[in-house]
Structures are given as C-alpha cells and as structure tokens.
Amino acid sequence: MNGGRAQGFVRTPDHRFADLPDYPWDPNYSGVEARGAPPLRMHYVEAGPATGDVVLLLHGHPTWSFLYRKVIAVLADLGCRVVAPDLVGYGRSDKLTERTDYTFGRHVQWMRSFVTDLDLHDVTLVVQDWGGPIGLSALAGDPERFARIVATNTVLHTSDPSLAGQLTWANHGSGDTTVTLEEALVDYVASSWRAPDLVPSMFVEAVAGPLAPGVLAAYDAPFPDATFKAGLRQMPGLIPLTRNDPGATIGRRALAALEKWDRPFLTAFSDGDPATRGWETVFRDRIPGARGQSHVTIAGAGHFVPEQKGEELAHVVATFIATT
User: Fold this and answer.
1) Residues in Cβ contact with 194 at an 8 Å cutoff, skipping those fewer than 6 apart
2) What domains lie within the chain, and their CATH numbers?
3) With DSSP H G I counted as helix, E B as strand and the rest as coil, what are the percentages for the chain, rounded to 5?
4) What is the Cα–Cα distance from 284 to 4, expressed in whole angstroms?
5) Which of 105, 136, 96 is nearest to 233 (CA)?
6) Less packed terminus of the chain by CB within 10 Å, N or C?
7) Selected catalytic residue, list 94, 129, 157, 172
8) How far apart are CA 128 and CA 153, in angstroms?
9) What is the C-alpha to C-alpha distance for residues 123 and 317, in angstroms, rounded to an integer?
10) Is the dihedral of CA 260, 262, 264, 266 positive or negative?
11) Is 303 labeled as catalytic in the residue annotation?
C-alpha cells in the first residue's frame, strides 16, 4: 500500500518524502510484530558496505531517521554498515491510528522484532532521546547481539529514589508514596496531550534552530494531518512519572541488565540539555563497560545532538568502534 489506511494503521504517502535535503537513501522495510498489535512494517535506511561494522542508530521523539542523516553519511563513508530505523508511528514506518495502541512495551517488542528480522549481530547501538529507553530495553532482552553502546542525550525511565540529587530534571520517587518531578517535565507531558496540534519541527527548531525551511519541512513530512499523529501524541505520555508505572518497571529491568554490561559503553552527551543532564554520570557510575572509557562532551549542542553536531558525533562513534 502506497499511502492510505488498513487494519487500524496508516502509511504516509511516498510523495511526502521526495527531495528531502541530504537524505538520498532509498527506503527499506522490515516486518515487525508486538503482542496485541497487527503486523506492521518498519522503515529503515541502510548505507555503507554490507561487510562493515554494524551501527544501529535509534532516534526518539518527535524525530525520525532524518535526524541522523549527517551521522549516516559520515559513518557509511568510513566503512560502517549503518542501519537507521524509524520507530513505529514515526517517519516512513506504519502508524497506528489509535493513541492507546502505542505502549512502551510494544515499542520495545517492535525494536526486538526489527533486530531479529534483520538478524543483526555485533551491533554498535547509538541511542538518543526515546531511542535510549526503547533500544536499551531491547538490548537487555537479547544482549548477545550487541557489541558496544553509545548514549547521547538519553535517559532510562526508572523513577527510582536513588536518582535524587543526580538529575537536573528530577523524576524519581521520594519516600514511600510521593514523587519529585521537574515542573518543566510535567508541563511538557501535559502540553503534548492537550495541544490542539503537534508539529515536530517546532520542537526541533526551539532547541536546535535556526534550521533551514527544507529541514523543518522534512521533520514534519511523516505527519500530513492528525490521523498520522497518534503515536507522536502518545509518546510523551508514556514517560513514567511514578514507580508504579509499567514503563518504570521496564526501565528498572533495563538498568539492572546494564549494571552487568561489561562491554564498551560510551556517553557522548551535549553541554546544553538540562532535560537529560545527569544521566551521563548515572550511566558512567553504574555500568561496568563505561569505566575507563574516553567519554565525550559535545560542546555547543542541545538535546538533538545528531542534528546540531552530526558529523562530530559520527566521528566519536567511529573512533569508539576502532579503539574498542
């Protein structure tokens, strides 16, 4: 189906993706599954030699693989096999039309299904924003497929009281029955659900701008109207704000697995993102594979490091692969 609706999901028409700036790759699709959801197809970019080191680039909200276009180009030129999927509900991937059909658990299942379908091994996993909670949770369920991890401006949603005092944006339990939350975080979740419309380019421009009109249009391309935005609207509401949230259980399970991870783990956070600041230290302190690594701070960037400093991030990843 080339655009249109079927079985409770829609596909963005192909013409929406014509002539995107610095995004020349042909589409590829993988069939993915999750419990209680129809079979869907997940779009991905693949670039570079098939025999190169596999690098899996996972985006978050509200972006898609277009976010990584600069990273893809550099890593492919350096000889890596680069795979950059779009999460279900984003980019050229299928989009379920009911908001409540999107759950944290299903996003993890879809990603595990994707990695299994492509039979990826010895993967260098690069995660940003929601790519972290989803990708790291998928890794926790099948760690032998992964060789190393690069985390850039991401978190793990655990709501654990031990995070008190460690994060710029607080999100943790306090005592037995209360929580401490950054007001800006609550405002973000509430506004994402209540806003009459969500326009991805507005978020990216606010943090990473000014950006060219063609770039802004590319971020909006997957979402012609509200029919295509159910996953976009649901994602912020999946952020666990209490320890009782099912997503917090998923996050704690992923962190517990990472606390046994002794393969290389690198943080490459920016110096200008209060929403994730502090997590780079949590990762370095708790993950065995992070100890002794040459962790990087990317200067002059905010939350969307691949957009603002994509070439620099790509070289960080390439160096990490070459030296571990």
Assistant:
1) none
2) 4-323 (3.40.50.1820)
3) 40, 20, 40
4) 45
5) 96
6) N
7) 129
8) 6
9) 12
10) positive
11) yes
Active site residue 117: no
Question: Do the bridges between strand 4-6 and strand 9-11 make them parallel or antiparallel, or are there none, so unpaired?
Answer: antiparallel
273 belongs to the catalytic site: yes
Q: Count Cα atoms within 13 angstroms, Cβ side, for 51.
A: 0
What's the rounded Cα separation, in Å, for the pair 179 and 279? 18
In 10 A of CB 280, how many CB atoms? 24
Q: What is the pTM of this model?
A: 0.96
Looking at residue 4, what is its pLDDT?
46
Cα dihedral value 298, 290, 57, 222, nearest 10: -70
| N-to-C CA span, the chain | 43
**What parts of the chain have a pLDDT lower than 70?**
1-7
Q: Which of 51, 58, 59 is nearest to 76 (CA)?
A: 51
What was the pLDDT predicted at 6?
A: 47
Q: Kindly name the residue from 53, 86, 101, 273 that is annotated as catalytic.
A: 273
Q: Which residue(s) pair with 304 in the sheet?
A: none
3-state SS of 234-285? HHHHHCCCCCCCHHHHHHHHHHHHHCCCCCCEEEEEECCCCCCCCHHHHHHH
**Burial annotation 289-324 (CB, 10 A radius, 16+ → b, else e):** bbeebebbebeebbbbbbbbbbebbbbbbbebbeee
Question: How many CB atoms are located within 10 Å of the residue 188 CB?
Answer: 15
**Residue 306 structure tokens:** 């691949």
Out of 43, 59, 107, 303, the active site residue is 303
What's the pLDDT score for residue 3? Answer: 52
